[in-house]
Give the backbone structure.
Amino acid sequence: MSMNVRNNLEKIREELPAGVKLVAVSKTVPAPEVMPAYEAGQRLFGENKAQELIAKQPLLPDDIQWHFIGHLQTNKVKYIAPFVSMIESVDSLKLLDEINKQGERFGRIINCLLQFHIASEETKFGLSLQEGLQLLASPRLSRMDNIKLCGVMGMATFTDDEEKVRAEFRTLKGYFVSLRNQFFANDDDFREISMGMTGDYRIAVEEGSTLVRIGTAIFGERT
Ligand SMILES: *Cc1c(COP(=O)(O)O)cnc(C)c1O
């Protein structure tokens, strides 16, 4: 199994163009089974549940950068704020407010992405473009000194229809470009487009992804 993890990682890395970072999604994978990926040089990992991340983080090396990629309740922010490297799934001003507050409390500036809803499935979280624009125009945002907005994140519809997936990624890229032009023209930190998972990362990369989040293709099927 550990051989597979290393081989899987190496195959994916070879495929990714320079400038596209890989988040190894270790959700449901026990800490000892995450280690082979670490030993193969992987340092960027993703988790989608606060509870699981809090339990796993102390069991693994300190130089891992943890990205939080799941729906985050405000009352859970305080548990991950001391160490999380990026929260990719910010979908409200209220959540951003709490991340800022906890960042202040722990003396950190916490990197965040705004998650947009680009899929046709209703179950997927995220902002509409309208909501994103509203959030970014809020005067409250300019007073948040302990968060840094680094870009956008989105999940495409789970489907075999590649053209549909491609169109959704293209939509997210379009959101990114217009938000950058409107709100971040002089801010080089706003540069990430997190899109692409095991089933669709090749399309995402073709459409301009800078961060792919891959679990199954590295660690195998989740049980
Ligand atoms: C689980 C998950 C992934 C990885 O999915 P795979 O299909 O296993 O690569 C990526 N992003 C998010 C938000 C996830 O929850």
Notes: The longest strand covers residues 147-155. The chain has a mean pLDDT of 96. DSSP finds nine helices and eight strands in the chain.
